Amino acid sequence: MTLLNREPTLGARSSRRFNQPSYIQSKEKAMNAISKIRATAMLPLVFGAALAQANPEVGGDYSFASFKNLLDTDTVVNTVVVKCPAAGTLVANASAQISMDSMFVPGEAEVIYGITKNSTATDINQHHLLRQFTESGTTFGTASYQRTDTCVLNQTVTYRVIAHKVSAQSASAQKSSLAVSFIRDRI
Question: Which SS3 state, helix, strand or coil, does residue 126 take?
Fold first, then answer.
């Protein structure tokens, strides 16, 4: 029973524990080490803006048109001009809501649309036909198109969304957008 009332003593084993850094000191050392690692890891991000000018990876531009009447001949809806900062790939994406009217007569209404490269005429290999049947004479469809092309350093490329009505009495492109992106490396 005398063992229970005994005062704790500092033996050889417990004295080593007091010579070691405390938990708080150890945590502070670990946090300082992590901060140094974070600072080193942030250097590429801090200097990344300057490096991006010298070594472009991606870039882009866009055009938006809220409304454009489509004619019987090729109609330019959107235009984007880009200059390639390096050799790479250009990706052009277009989308619009197309309204077609057959003047209150049930039937088909058609519009051709696509993306051209350095041209104002429909590219036979880069277009779609949007065909809708309508009971009321008016119909809406969603037009979406994508094309990719390679480019070389300092090459200027003009992309256009081109559309024209085929069998519709009247047609329009609404909320049309053309976005062109540059990608240096393919995966």
Answer: coil
Across the chain, which has 187 residues, the per-10-residue mean pLDDT values are 44 47 57 51 41 61 94 95 93 94 82 95 88 84 94 95 91 95 85
Same domain as 65, residue 33: no
Strands (E), 17-169: 58-70, 75-83, 88-101, 107-117, 127-134, 138-151, 156-165
Specify whether 87 is located in the same domain as 156. Answer: yes
Do residues 97 and 173 share a domain?
yes
The angle formed by the CA atoms of residues 83, 93 and 77, to the nearest 5 degrees, is: 85
* Rounded distance between C-alpha atoms, residue 94 and residue 144, angstroms: 6
Look at residue 4 and tell me if it is in a domain: no
- At 111, the amino acid letter reads V
5 falls within a domain = no
- Residues 39 and 76 placed together within one structural domain of the fold: no
Q: Are 80 and 64 in contact (CB under 8 A)?
A: no
Degrees (nearest 5) of the Cα angle 126, 141, 108? 90
Nearest-CA neighbor of 65 among 169, 181, 162, 132?
162
Residue corresponding to tokens 């049947």: 133
